[in-house]
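tool_log.txt
---
The assistant was asked to compare two proteins side by side. It first ran the structure predictor on the initial sequence, then on the second. Raw inputs and outputs are pasted verbatim so the downstream comparison step can read them without reformatting.
(1)
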Amino acid sequence: MKHAPIALLGLTIAAFTFTAGPAGASEELAKKSGCVACHAPDKKVVGPSWHDIAAKYKGDAKAADTLAAKVKAGGKGVWGQVAMPPQAQVKDPDLKAILGWVLSR
């Protein structure tokens, strides 16, 4: 029984790391990459909300790849006539994490 508190602490840390940790890290990447200048979790700013993006692409197995290409190249017409400028400076691993987080909302 001496090891029970240590085991519980380890499980708590693991649970936090695999739930809140990655989401928080992805949100921080979105902020660092400038995504929050035009997007918000639950409301349209200049571009659509992350919730709206997730809903639109729900069930689309190719959504992450499609959106990654759009983020890198920029575009317009899917969400209206306001163009999204290319975001080629976002590193591929960061973009993958951000999009995974957005699509999981």
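(2)
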Amino acid sequence: MATYIIKTKEGHGSGCIISKNGLILTNYHVVDSASIVQVFFEDGTKDSGTVIRINPLFDLALVKIKPVLSKPLKVYLTKSTDVGTEVYAIGTPEEMDLGQTVTKGIISGKRKIEEKFYIQSDVSISPGNSGGPLINKDCQIIGIINAKIIGKGVEVIGFAIPSFYIEEALKLRFQQ
């Protein structure tokens, strides 16, 4: 699977591989001020990763590890995502032992918060899922999970940073 656990001194989050040369996409709030992180793979092995780009405004970060054999996830760059579309979140909710957890839901809305767009979903997410991919049925990254609403009477409302922000925010170019 193309998702990993990203661990720092402060805690852990999730990330996804986007290139065979070892680029991992995650949230800025997962890596925060760290320049080196630990990356845990599905088979239990780990490696050090170097944080090579950050964008606090878009809550995105790029981590570099050595080249991988895992098939990278493709980034869906189109701005069209329809409400009602089935989506899946992959990540590490709460405990590291729960790595590679997959949950399923739908896109339940599109929201504009502080001049940025977010994908709203009813996919179950928990602390530790941050930085993990929100993917469509074709296993393409449509967003990076970054927040959820917690409150009395509120359940299962999560948000993801749309993937169309990734190229601009992290100064990347994907070949389609």
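---
observation on (2): The first strand starts at residue 3 and ends at 8. The radius of gyration is 15 Å.
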